[in-house]
Design brief:
By secondary structure, the chain is of the alpha/beta class. It folds into three domains: about 140 residues, Rossmann fold; about 140 residues, Argininosuccinate synthetase, chain A, domain 2, CATH 3.90.1260; about 35 residues, no CATH class. It contains twelve helices and 14 strands. A hairpin with a 2-residue loop joins β8 and β9. α4 packs across α5, α7 packs across α8 and α9 packs antiparallel against α10. The chain is elongated, with a radius of gyration of 25 Å.
């Protein structure tokens, strides 16, 4: 293992990555560079600096990536109305390509020959981190301790930490029974009671959103302004991408919006149950489809919808940095040129009610769509020929005895 001289570790400062840091130093006898990303997870990231210094780390990166995360990853994904298996808004999945990108950038800056992460051998994240790393730096070495060591339980990790003098913060005697991941788009929960698919999730598990019983009893109206498929203002106030998402999270959480409980198919082959809170993203999906409904051509909209499951699968499986995702992104982004305007929503007790949408680029023509006299804008008699032409193949088949009755 002496070929590894320096490794960049994705470091949170928690139990797992603190043990990994020391394990890398001892097992590989190498220098470790730590990288801690602020993706809006709601926890202080600066304490990771002191923890890394205590373990002898000299090169420490702590980066605020919130704006880049939303601008370059979340917003592009929502332009496609992306949703995995009908429900999951990909909150964890979409953060991984940014972390992989930054790991490789730091490896290049520091002359490191390897990167490392704390993802387990059972999950999707190991795939996402490593596919991204190899796509961006083909010759990089990836060290995944969970696939190498024998510290396969929390008790063993705690014993290792105690043996090596690694300080681990304790929050009373009770630890969360869930494996959680948070960023500005969502917070996820796995493990604990959720491993029984029949068991109801516990109400005190949720960290962001109010229950429907406790949600605001007063409905709230909001207006979202779109420019080329992205939200640029809320209630007429211009905001940056990260500020938009943070504000929608705050608003949505107060109204009990964005909770889901799903069993998803992991790329590595197993099914896993997870609960997610994605209040801002849930609002964004509803609103984006609304503004597209009046600004997109019918066939463009339908083509986008047909491509979306593939696009979602690419992100979920870790192929953000693939040529096929980049190709789809160019097509999606081209479709957003005229997706401009304002969407008005009513939020109440977990519901997002679409109230209105308007755009200078709207393709909706009231003079044609009206049920009143359209003054010749649409000749209804033309529909007869349209129907007969489209029925021709059905009539021919039925005349040959191929009726489906």
């Amino acid at each position: 293992m002496s070929d590894v001289k320096k490794v960049v570790l994705a470091y949170s400062g928690g139990l797992d990555t603190s043990v990994i840091l020391k394990w890398l130093q001892d097992t590989y006898n190498c220098e470790v560079v730590t990288f801690t990303a602020d993706l809006g997870q709601g926890e202080e990231v600066e304490p990771a600096r002191a923890k890394a210094q205590a373990l002898g780390v000299k090169e420490i990166y702590i980066d605020d990536l919130r704006e880049e995360f939303v601008r370059d990853f979340v917003f592009p994904m929502f332009r496609a109305n992306t949703i995995y298996e009908g429900e999951y808004l990909l909150g964890t999945s979409i953060a991984r390509p940014l972390i992989a990108k930054r790991l490789i950038e730091i490896a290049n800056e520091t002359g490191a020959d390897a990167i490392s992460h704390g993802a387990t051998g059972k999950g999707n994240d190991q795939v996402r981190f490593e596919l991204g790393a190899y796509a961006l730096k083909p010759g990089v070495k990836v060290i995944a301790p969970w696939r190498e060591w024998d510290l396969l339980s929390r008790e063993k990790l705690m014993d290792y930490a105690a043996k090596h003098g690694i300080e681990i913060e304790r929050h009373g005697n009770k630890k969360s029974p869930y494996s959680m991941d948070a960023n500005l788009l969502h917070i996820s929960y796995e493990g604990g009671v959720l491993e029984d698919t029949w068991a109801e999730h516990e109400e005190d598990m949720w960290r962001w959103t109010k229950s429907l019983e406790e949600a605001s009893s007063t409905a709230q109206y909001i207006e979202l302004t779109y420019r080329k498929g992205d939200i640029v203002a809320i209630d007429g106030v211009d905001m940056t991408p990260a500020t938009v998402l943070a504000e929608l999270n705050r608003i949505g959480s107060a109204h009990g919006i964005g909770r889901i409980d799903i069993v998803e198919n992991r790329y590595v082959g197993m099914k896993a149950r997870g609960c997610y809170e994605t209040p801002g993203g849930t609002i964004m999906l509803k609103a984006h489809r609304a503004i597209e409904s009046i600004t997109l051509d019918r066939e463009v909209a339908h083509l986008k919808d047909s491509l979306m499951p593939k696009y979602a699968e690419l992100i979920y499986n870790g192929y953000w940095w693939s040529p096929e995702r980049a190709m789809l992104q160019k097509m999606i982004d081209a479709s957003q040129e005229n997706v401009n305007g304002v969407v008005r929503l009513k939020l109440y007790k977990g519901n997002i009610v679409l109230i209105g949408r308007k755009s200078d680029d709207s393709l909706f023509d009231a003079a044609i769509a009206t049920f009143e006299d359209d003054a010749g804008a649409y000749d209804q008699a033309d529909a007869a020929g349209f129907i007969k032409l489209n029925a021709l193949r059905l009539r021919i088949a039925a005349s040959k005895g191929r009726s489906l009755l």
